Structures are given as structure tokens and as C-alpha cells.
Predict the 3D structure of the following.
Amino acid sequence: MDNRVIVVKNLIKKFGTFVANDNLSFDVFKGEIFGFLGANGAGKTTTIRILSGLSSPTSGEVTVAGINASKKPEEIKKQIGYMSQKFSLYEDLTVKENIMLYGGIYGLSKSLIKERTDSLLEKLNFLEYGNKLIADLTLGLRQKLAFSIAVFHDPKIVFLDEPTGGVDPITRRQFWEMIYETAARGITVFVTTHYMDEAEYCDRISIMSEGKIVALDTPENLKKLYNTATVEEVFIKIARPVNN
Amino acid sequence: MKRFLGFVRKEFLHIFRDYRTLFIIFGIPVAQILIFGFAISTDVKNAGVAFLDLSKDETTQKLTDKIISSGFFKKTENLTSYNEIEDIFRKGKTKEVIIFEKNFGKKLQNEGKASMSLIADGSEPNTATLVTNYTMAIVSDFNTDMSGVNANNPMLIQPEVKMFYNPELKSQHMFVPGVITMILILICALMTSVTIAREKEFGTMEVLLVSPLRPIQIILGKVVPYFLLSFINVIFILVLSWLVFGLSVKGSIILLLAESMLYIMLSLSVGILISIVSSSMQQAIFISLVGMMLPTILLSGFIYPIENMADIYGYISYLLPPRYFITIIKSIMIKGTGFMYVWKETLVLISMTMLFIGISVRKFKVRLE
């Protein structure tokens, strides 16, 4: 019917008297790369937790992949992938064992996992690493692998929570190429980042401040609107850190 | 279910890939059994004992002979009056003085009871406890010999005897139940709490929570491997102590294993609870060691008899699961009693398990919010 994969209407999330998400409304479309920006403490994490079924909204309507987040948060979990800034692979397991584990958790059959593992390792030029422990890989390789595993089960949406923290510029570049490929496959990419040059790569970005979305448009339109040369300047103009 | 099995498989990989974990699980029981069994032997051999026999009749002579011929005691002196007692303790060789009242034998025959006192050298509390207990065991044995079927304890001295029921008077037999109790708490509570805390610390817990795995599957997945390992461990310790010390289980092995499973579940639920309230591995280790290990060693009756503790510690020990488990397995292993005699302790353990699981499930949900 429509190609919106995330629909948020008047989302409010309160913790006691503290309002973490103050009346958010936005849509995210299929195959889109959606940048979710904001200073620390602006309420991004709360929103992501609600969108990924970990937490339920105080009020408002949230639909992810056609599923109501208040009613069936467990169903949402099957439709999404997730990768966090904190490291998400098991260091004492090998590359293949990690893939096997996550593939199994998402309910893929053994033969399908094996088939996809082979093509994945080939694509990443990882063939010789298949039986190596994650602990022996460089951070860049780990991040790429973590991302590949987050989309291994072909989710409708993948949430990336500051995926490129601590990674060198070359790997970051390669990482974004992988994001583009993923979006081209029709998987929506929902990404938070503190690197403003990365924000320029997104199809659309939203900027949160003090629990509210204060800007939402394509990077070009935002730059025009605020009459700046980069997204970074837009961000500094409108996103106030909570504690200052 | 397939998801769950994959997760369990991963937990086993964690365990088998980490040699330190494996070492803790199987190395420590061996070390402890050998250390407690051989090095810290609290057996008494040839402890000096002096007699103050105010009766000097046939019965006291028989009893004296029985005590000395037991092999645990060596007669140092025959005393003639109470005044000499302090002196003889000062010399240091005598650990215990045994006093028979006047007309001991006659009273025993006519009135059916007679009294004797045991005075031990309190400056060595452990030895003192041991020698008096040994003596009482011998006396109660003597009682049975004298009175035959009508074992109504005509010479009842002190009621403590029954806790130390240990006819072969070997300290290894007392330690094996203690070691099992301690190892289970160590593996179950410490290991599970650390492995869950580790996932939190490394950020993998976040990914698991976002995945279709249910929280209960995550917890169970953590618990199943340790349950199996702990169970194997119990069997391992029993076989080891049988091979090394010739200690066999007097009572029903099935009952013993069933009780062990219950205690394993209890320890696991404690471990889960610890991991839920702690946010780092360090915290989990600290809480497990200080909160569980130390009380288990010190207060559960493993090393120090609960009867000897100050009242307050005795009361605290009622709150500790190991206390009940030690009572249960000592009864089954050494006395050979059946379920009828340990059902109360079993019930306490069951209620504690349910309580801990209940709290854990509630807390785990709260943390998800």
C-alpha cells in the first residue's frame, strides 16, 4: 500500500516526570538511509529502544515493519537487525561460529546459513578468516563483520547505533559502501552517528534536541534552509547539548 | 527451540574454549579434596588424655580401656584430685581430662544412669571440639554395648553427639560434603553470574535482547550448560572421594543426586540474581565471593560446627542455603538416612529456589524497560 516501514505518530516516552521523547512524529521509507542525529542525552537511544521493541511508548502510535510496537514488540524483533557502538560479536568464537549463532537465533535453517556464510565470506574477502577467532581480527574487520551479521537474516530495517566509532577513515568509507549496498537491496538503514560528514551520506536526516525533533529533511534542504555549507554547521546551530 | 539450542551450543563453546573456566570447574574440586583430605587433616591421633577416676570400679575400667584402645587417645596420667587438672593442662601434653563420678558403676546398675565429665583444653578450640566429640562417640558406643536393645542413653552426657555422628571418625568424611557444597556454589553462582555480566559488559547482551530470543530463553541458555557441568562435577567428586578415601555413599545415591540437582538449581538462581543486580564482571565476582563463598565456608557448618558459633552467627546460618544442603548430604552420605529425615531441609531449599527465581524474573523485566 505505501512504502513506509517506520511510522511514528505523537510518540511520547516518560520516565517518571522526565520526558525523554516529546511528541515525536516521523516516517521512514523502504530502502532509505535515515540519519538520526542529536547530542548525547537528546533522547535518541530511547527512541531506538522503542523502535526495536525493547521498550514501549508511554503514548502515541509506533508501527515498525507494519507491526504495532505497543502491542507486539516481540514480533518486531524478528523483522529488524541491530548493531551497536559497543562491540557485538563474541571474541572467543570464530567468525563462522558467530555467524552460525546469530543466523540460528534469527531462525535461519542450517543449509541456508551455510550457503549465505560462504557467499558472505567471499564477498568480504574473508575466506581465510572463517575459522579465526574474532579476537584475532582488527577492529575494522570486526565492524564490517558485525554489520554483515546484523543484516544476515535479511531484516526489513537495520538499526546502527554509532557503528563507526573508533574506526579509521578508510574502513569508515568501506563501511558506508556496505550501507549503500544494503539500502539498494531494499533494507532500510536507520543510523545514528556523531560524525557529521557521515550525516551528509544519508538520504534524510533528523536532528533531535531535548526530546524533540527539531529538523527533518534531506541534507541539501537543511543546508539551504539554515544557509550553511555543511550539516555540521546546521547541527551546531540547532542541537543544543542538554547540560549546557 | 532451534534458536535456543544454538544459544546453548554457544555457551558450551565459551566454556570449552576458556581453559581457565574448565580448570576452575574440574581442577578446584580435586585440589580441595586432596588438601582437605590430607593436609588439613583434623583427625586426632594419640591425643593425650588424663583420667580422674573417683570410682575405680569394673565399669570405669572397661570404659577407660575402650577409650584408650580406640587409637585416638593416649593416657598421659591418672589423676587423684580435681586440683591437679589445671596443672596437667599447663604441661600441654594432655588435651582432655575425663572424670568419672563416685560409685559410677553402681549407679549405672542401680539407677540406670551415671555421670562423667569431659574437660578439654580450650586453648585449641578445634582439637578440643574434636577430642570431646570423639570421646562422646565412644561413650555412646559403650552405652549401646551395655544397654543392648534398650538404648535409652542411661549415661547421657551432652546432646551434641548426634551432629558429629561419624562412626569411623574420619575427617575426610566430613569434608567431602562440604567440598561438594562449596564447589556447587562456586560453579553455579559465580560462573553464571560472571557469564551474564560479561555479556552486559561486552555489549552482546544488547544484541541478544533485540533479537527474537526471549529473556527467559537467554537465562535458560546460560543456565543449562552449567547445570549439566555441575551435575557431572558432583558425580566426579563422589567418584574421586571414593577412589582416594574409600568413602562410599551410605544412603540412596539417587536421593543424593536428586538433592544435588535441587541445590544446583538453587545456586544457579542465586547466580542469575547476582548477575542481574550487578553491572560488571568485577561486581559479580565480588558479590559471589564475599556474599556466597565466605559464608559457605565459615558459617554453614562446613569447617566450624554451627553448635560452636555465637548465637548471632547461628541465626545467620539459617539464611544460608548451604547449611541445609550440608545437613542433607551429610545425612545421606554418612548416616545413610532416607528422605523422611531430610524433607524439612529439602522443603526449605525448594522455597528458597522459588523465591530467587521469582525475584530474578521480576528484576529482569524491570531492567528491560
Chain A is about 35% helix and 25% strand. Chain A has one domain: 4-238.
